[in-house]
Amino acid sequence: xxxxxxxxxxxxxxxxxxxxxxxxxxxxxxxxxxxxxxxxxxxxxxxxxxxxxxxxxxxxxxxxxxxxxxxxxxxxxxxxxxxxxxxxxxxxxxxxxxxxxxxxxxxxxxxxxxxxxxxxxxxxxxxxxxxxxxxxxxxxxxxxxxxxxxxxxxxxxxxxxxxxxxxxxxxxxxxxxxxxxxxxxxxxxxxxxxxxxxxxxxxxxxxxxxxxxxxxxxxxxxxxxxxxxxxxxxxxxxxxxxxxxxxxxxxxxxxxxxxxxxxxxxxxxxxxxxxxxxxxxxxxxxxxxxxxxxxxxxxxxxxxxxxxxxxxxxxxxxxxxxxxxxxxxxxxxxxxxxxxxxxxxxxxxxxxxxxxxxxxxxxxxxxxxxxxxxxxxxxxxxxxxxxxxxxxxxxxxxxxxxxxxxxxxxxxxxxxxxxxxxxxxxxxxxxxxxxxxxxxxxxx
Length: 444
Hints:
15 helices; about 20% strand; single chain; alpha/beta; six-stranded mixed sheet; UDP-N-acetylmuramoyl-L-alanine:D-glutamate ligase; 17 strands; Protein-Tyrosine Phosphatase, Chain A
């Protein structure tokens, strides 16, 4: 069988476990990892949780570590085009052949575990175990691991990583994590084990009590954005922004980051502090400036204000909750000079759709609503009325699928007299699934 065919079969076998099925109980993956010889103990890790910015921060940490000559493994989710994206070695997704080989090693042991429990291992359990096994086999010097959902009960919370990262906390996945910032913070802090270092982005006031209390209980060292590190200054630059960053060990000036938005500057500061903590932050421990610049300059984050077309510009952004959409909206205003901007949106039904639409309304001239490919996608019968409540009837167009939606948005962006093509733009957003669907359209 050809490698491509074998990979397709493995992909189907994984999907049969239920792509979105969730079981918040770690005993099954702990048993599987025991059978695999606990590969996650073969290397140190940096473990990343939070609500927004986890993948961007993970990619930035990964790039900084590689710039310092370390071999890295990176585990993130969800993926945009292929499940292979979840497991990266030295910044690149594993090959189809390697993915198949890892799966064939894990699957027989997973079948044994399935027989021991009422609920079989999930899709995420299996890919997590595969990532840890792949990193041990490589071998890597360090793993950068993003939490799937929450923290305390997440399948990745078997690491006891020496450095943990908490990106900004917001209200999302409330049906599983709790309906207050404080409840969500407690859940996410479950990855912070005794004696580790926690690097935290600036957080809502409601998260302060859980963070301080948990770190005190765990005897964990806490480094906070705005106190121990942060963004000193930022200015727009062609293709991104130039930053001055205060790290844990010193200041770093003239850092180019090829990503847009104040939120990405914040992610950069958090990533820098995490890497400093990993190497051992302190007086006279400042990282080499040229190496830091190289690391930041090499960062790529697909699907985050990613330009996939020019004239008119089409941007893809995977914001999927109100806080994330607020950051996207701010970046669209601050860093792009569109004279006319049209949005294409498709959401998952269990999200705060009204909250996201309210963030977009001030920055868009028109809106096209559609559906994405997810079975959890919000129907047009539900989405269109919500959009009209926020934008008004005249600014909302309904399209049955994403291709027609993008075509309609391009026409609307170019429609106004006097707006040159360079001043017209389209942003496709609302869900990771929506962005994944759009990337397939543009890169097929």
